[in-house]
Amino acid sequence: MKIMASDIWQEIEKIREKVPLIHNITNYVVMNTTANALLAIGASPVMAHAAEEVEEMVAIAGALVINIGTLSDKWVESMFRAAREAKKRNIPIILDPVGAGATRYRTETARNLISTVPPSIIRGNASEIMALGPEKGARTKGVDSIALSHAAIDAARGLNITYGSTICVSGETDYIIDNDIIGIRNGHPMMSRVTGFGCTASALCGAFAAVNSNYAMAAAQAMAVMGIAGEIAAETAAGPGSLQTAFLDTLYCLTASDIGKHLRIKD
Amino acid sequence: MKIMASDIWQEIEKIREKVPLIHNITNYVVMNTTANALLAIGASPVMAHAAEEVEEMVAIAGALVINIGTLSDKWVESMFRAAREAKKRNIPIILDPVGAGATRYRTETARNLISTVPPSIIRGNASEIMALGPEKGARTKGVDSIALSHAAIDAARGLNITYGSTICVSGETDYIIDNDIIGIRNGHPMMSRVTGFGCTASALCGAFAAVNSNYAMAAAQAMAVMGIAGEIAAETAAGPGSLQTAFLDTLYCLTASDIGKHLRIKD
Amino acid sequence: MKIMASDIWQEIEKIREKVPLIHNITNYVVMNTTANALLAIGASPVMAHAAEEVEEMVAIAGALVINIGTLSDKWVESMFRAAREAKKRNIPIILDPVGAGATRYRTETARNLISTVPPSIIRGNASEIMALGPEKGARTKGVDSIALSHAAIDAARGLNITYGSTICVSGETDYIIDNDIIGIRNGHPMMSRVTGFGCTASALCGAFAAVNSNYAMAAAQAMAVMGIAGEIAAETAAGPGSLQTAFLDTLYCLTASDIGKHLRIKD
After folding, report:
1. Hey, which residues 48-67 in chain C have their CB within 8 Å of chain B?
2. pLDDT digits over A26-50, tens only?
3. How confident is the model at residue A150 (pLDDT cuts 50, 70, 90)?
4. C188 touches chain B (CB under 8 A)
C-alpha cells in the first residue's frame, strides 16, 4: 500500500464535497478542539452521548468516533449502543483508548468494546496499544506516550489478527498496522504539549474513513494530514497555545502542494 | 422596530455597567467559548446543571440560557427545573435547540421545553426551527445550517404565535421574528467553520435580554453584535482557529464606531 | 518564608524533569485550558471522574486537583473517593471551591470536602473563601471576584487554623495564608475576562505541590508564575482571546530571567 500526496488531497476534496457527519462520543477535554478540527478539514461534527439518541444519531453519520478519555458508566453504555448500531449499518468505528493501561476501568472498557464490536480503526499511543494487546502491557503512567517499542507493534499485530481492526500506534513515527505496516514521519515535538492532538488524530481518522472504506489507507492519510498540519503550524507558533490555533488555520488552508512538500513516509 | 447602532452601543454599556450573571445550562463543546464570549462582552457567566442547585443559581441570574447540544436525562430534568424557576421570577429564558430534527430525543426535549415553559427567545438555524414549528420539519443532517427557506420563517411565525417567544432563525441573514420581522445581514462565511458560534449567539442573546425586556430588540442586537464581531475578526484571521481568538478580542474591544460602520439591516 | 525567583525557577525545572501526573476532577468549562496549562509548565494532566477509577488513578498521581465548578452528585462522590485515597497515600490535594457562596450545594460540598479530607491547598477568590470560613460569608454573585477584604484573610486564617490547609485568596494581590502571610502582586486586570484562569492557578498549584511538600511555598510559587505569565502575555495580547493563547505560549517559554524581572512580592 502506497501513501501518495495526490491521493491524500483527493480524499480531502471528497470530505469537503460530501461533508460527512462524524458522530463523536468523546471526552470532555477535547470536544471543542476535535469539533473544530473536523470543521476545518471540511467534515460536520456532532457530539451526542445520551442512550436515548445515539443509535438514531449514528444512523445518519458517516463515521463513529469513540474516545474513552473521561468515561463513566452511562457513557460506556452509550458507546456500546452506538457501536452496535454502527456495525449493523456498516458505518466505520474509530476507537481511541485514551489512558488504557492507566486504570483497569479504561483497559477493560476498551478491551470489551474491541471484542464485542471490533472497531475499523484503533488509534492510540504505544503504551495504550500495548495495554490492549494479547500480552499484558506495561502499566502506563497516565496518558503520555512512552518510547515506541517493538512490543507496541507486536501488540498491534496481535489486535489486527484477532479482530481485523486497522491499528495505528502514534508517536514520533506513526505506525499503521494492517496487512502491511506503514510508517508516517510527520509531526512536531511541540504537539505533545497540546492536549488532545491524539484525540484530534482519531477524529480525523473518522473523517477519512467516512469517505474511504480502505481503513488502513484512511488512517494513514489522516495521520499524515495531522502531522503535516502540525509541522506547518509549528513553523510560526510561539508555543503550544498558538500551535493549537495555527493548527486549525493550517488544516483549513491546507493545499495539495503543502502535502506534497511535507509528506514523509518511512521506508 | 428599528435597530440602531447607537442603541446597540448603549445596551453594551448597560451590560458592562450591570455585569449581569448569565446562568448557562449548555453543551460540553461550547462551555469554554461561550463563557469567554460572555466575559468579553462584559457579562458574568456561570455554568451549573445540578438539580440540587439550578433553582438557587437562576434566582440570582439576569438570564437563563438553555442549550440542548449534548443533553442527557439528568440535564433535561435540570433544564426544566431552572426554566420553571426563571419563569416564576420573570427572568428571561433563551433556548438554543441544537440539533432539533436530528434525533427524536432532541426534537421532543425542545418541544416539551417550549410548550411547558415558553422561552423568551428561541435561536436556532433554519432546520432546527423548522423541526420545532407546527409543520413537521425536514429531518436535519446533524447540526449544520441548511439554506434558509420560507418554511423556516413560517415555522418561526407559528412558534411565535403559539408561545409568544421571539424566534431567531440564524443563517446568512439572521431573521428575528416577533410582531415584526427584522433581518440582520452581518457575519462572515468562515464563522460556520468554528464550532459553537451559534451557541455563542444564544449566550449573547442572554446578555442583551438581561438588560432589556424587549426581547425582540435584545435578540436583534445580540445577532448584530455577533455578526459584526465575526466580520471584524475575519478581516485579520488566517483561518477558523485565529477567527475564534480574534472574535473574542473584537468583542472585548468593540466600539460604537465599529458598530456604526458595520451594521447591516435588511430592508 | 521568602519567595525567590531563583527558587521558582528551580521548581519549574523539577516539574519538567519529573513530569508529575496531575489528576484533575474539575469542571467542564476549563478542562481543556487547565490541561494545556499543565502541559505547558511541564506536568502531565489527566482528567478522570468515574467512581470506578478515581482511586486507582490518584494512586499514580503526584497531586489531586478538585474543582467544584460544574459539580453534580456522582462527581461529588468521586471527589470524596479520590480525596480519601490521596490522603491515605500522602498525595497533595488542591481544592478550588468555585462558586462557593453562590448556592448551598456548592458551599456545603466544599465545606464537607474540607472537613472530611482537609486539602493541602485551598485556592479561591475572596468571596469563595469567605463563604467557607467560620463566619458566614457574604452571598456571592456567581463566581466573580469581589474586592478582597480583611474578612477574606480572617476567614482564611480560620480555615488554616482549623484544618491546617494552606489557603490562597486570589485577587489583585494574591494572599497565601499559612503560618505566614505572603502577598504576590503579579497578574493583569484582563485576566479576569478570560474564563478559567482561577482554575488554572489551582491546577498549577497542583504541579508545584507535586514536587514540593512545603505547600505554602508551592502555592505562592504557582500564583507568582500564573501572574507573571499573565502579565507577559498581556503585553502582546489584543484582548482576552489572544491573552489565553499567549498565556500558554508564555508558560511554555518562561525563563528564569522573566521570573526575576517580573516577580513582585508585597512587603
Report:
1. none
2. 999 999 999 999 999 999 999 999 9
3. confident
4. no
Compute, in degrees rounded to 10, the torsion defined by CA atoms A78, A79, A84, A87: 140
Q: Are B1 and B182 in contact (CB under 8 A)?
A: yes
Single out the residue of C223, C203, C221 nearest to residue C212, CA to CA: C221
Q: β-strands C181-184, C174-177: how paired?
A: antiparallel
Is it the case that residue C93 has pLDDT exceeding 60?
Answer: yes
Res A184: pLDDT? 97
Record: fold of C5-181+188-222: UDP-N-acetylmuramoyl-L-alanine:D-glutamate ligase (3.40.1190)
Q: What is the pTM of this model?
A: 0.95
Of A27, A196, A241, the CB nearest to C246: A241
Degrees (nearest 5) of the Cα angle A142, A148, A150? Answer: 125
Nearest one of B88, B87, B96, B86 to B54, comparing CA atoms: B86
Report residue B153 CA to chain centroid gap: 17
The angle, 0 to 180 degrees and rounded to 10, between the axes of the packed helices C240-253 and A240-253 is 120
Q: What CATH code would you report for A5-262?
A: 3.40.1190.20
What sign does the dihedral A12-A16-A22-A27 (CA atoms) show?
A: positive
Judged by a CB distance cut-off of 8 A, whether residue B29 touches chain A is: yes
Which residue type occupies B60? I
Whole-angstrom CA distances from C179 to C149, C165, C204 are: 19, 10, 21
